[in-house]
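Reply to dn_fold:

You asked what the input looked like. This is it:
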Amino acid sequence: MAEPNRTHRRSFITGAATSLASAAASRDAHAAVSREQLKLDVPFAPMAVYARMHGSRPGKPSIWYGNAVYYGQLADRAPVPILGAEELNLVTVDYNGSDRLTEVTNKVTYFQDLESGKILTKWRNIFTKEMLDLTRPQITTTTVIENSTMKAEERSSYVKIDRRGNLHAPFLQGDVLTIAHEQFATFTASALDDQADHRVDQRWWSGIWSSFSANAADFVKSQDGFLACHGQTFGGAPWYSWLKMGDRPGTSSMRRFATKLASESDVPPRLLAWIAKNHSGFLTGI
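and this is what came back:
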């Protein structure tokens, strides 16, 4: 049983080393671009930066690949990492070049054992000992940004949540351009699929805090076509509904790292095979 774990970790370390080498090569290639030039040339309008980072595949959705770790925290204890996840997001951005942006994100996800990396369809909740179904339907989130105010509607067969938030001004850190936002929601148990596990009159909250980054010189030089980007998100809620924790005091949270891919061929083979089997039409048209 130990060998899959070693292989999984060896693969992770090799991938991290490759990413670091790639980052170093990119830094050296753009060393001649001065900070003053970036200040003058980068369009700092928040929605313009957001649109370039999230989109930039004309006529096709952008492909975002993500890895996540989910945590659970009982009221009087430290957070515990409970599950890993891999996901693929197809993102379509419609920006009018001025004060309105509409983004539609379609997401599919599978959960993993944190040690072995094995895909999980069922999992025994470590807090309640209940066996849970971890299969997730496709989720569609529509986000509208008007003058940097965000309104997001998250929809699937098991959740219906509306969030509100703000898009912040982008900023430079060395040769990296970053833009951040947060979104929050409050809702009742009627928005969840497991209402029996919640007090009907209880209000719940959820929040996400995200940032997305790209090499600033790439952003300046490549205003059309693919722009390599990375993102990270932290999310929190009293308990994610699918954990079926009822009204036990505590919280759940999630930490996600995402990379925008140039093409479908860059999607990890195992995720691609899983999508073909479980969401056969998901990649149509990309």
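Residues 1-33, 190-200 have pLDDT under 50 and may be disordered.
Hope that clears it up.
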